[in-house]
Hints:
By secondary structure, the protein is an alpha/beta fold. The protein has two domains: about 10-90, 3-Layer(aba) Sandwich (Rossmann fold), CATH 3.40.50; about 110-170, no CATH class. Helix content is about 40%, strand content about 10%. The protein is built from seven helices and five strands. Strand 2 (about 70-75), helix 4 and strand 3 (about 90) form a beta-alpha-beta unit. Mean pLDDT is about 85; it is low at about 1-5.
Amino acid sequence: MTPNTDKPDFKALFAAEENHFWxxxxxxxxxxxxxxxxxxxxxxxxxxxGCGNGNVINEIQKRIxxxxxxxxxxxxxxxVNARCRLNCELVQADIFTGASTRxxxxxxxxxxxxxxxxxxxxxxxxxxxxxxxxxxxCAPEAEAEVLAILQADGFTSAQKIGHFALxxxxxxx
Length: 173
């Protein structure tokens, strides 16, 4: 992927996936783990988000033929290739949290995004848990108490990262 595009080179990836050692062993490991995890389930239902060319879900389909599989991919080019490999439902979709949409609705009019930024980048910026962390906003007078509670509950990395100030919006370049 290049910095200014959302679209991977699906054609080159598709050509490499079948024979490249990294993809073969990654699929073996994923296939082993998924098969082991679902060994006691008769007819599991599996959804792969971001299935790309269908390489991983193909491995799962081979190992668990009784599974109901659905692959989801943002880019139609990936789904075209996945259809060559798979016999399952494939859906073109963009997946993001509801919080991203609600957050943007709440303050998006105050933010100016550079024209080269896509919807996925807007969603990334507006989802406070994207990094696996949690963003908490509180009044300045509650800051010490909130940090103490978080520290006491084992969130030892919790810290103040900034503050809100009166202004006229934000520009993201």
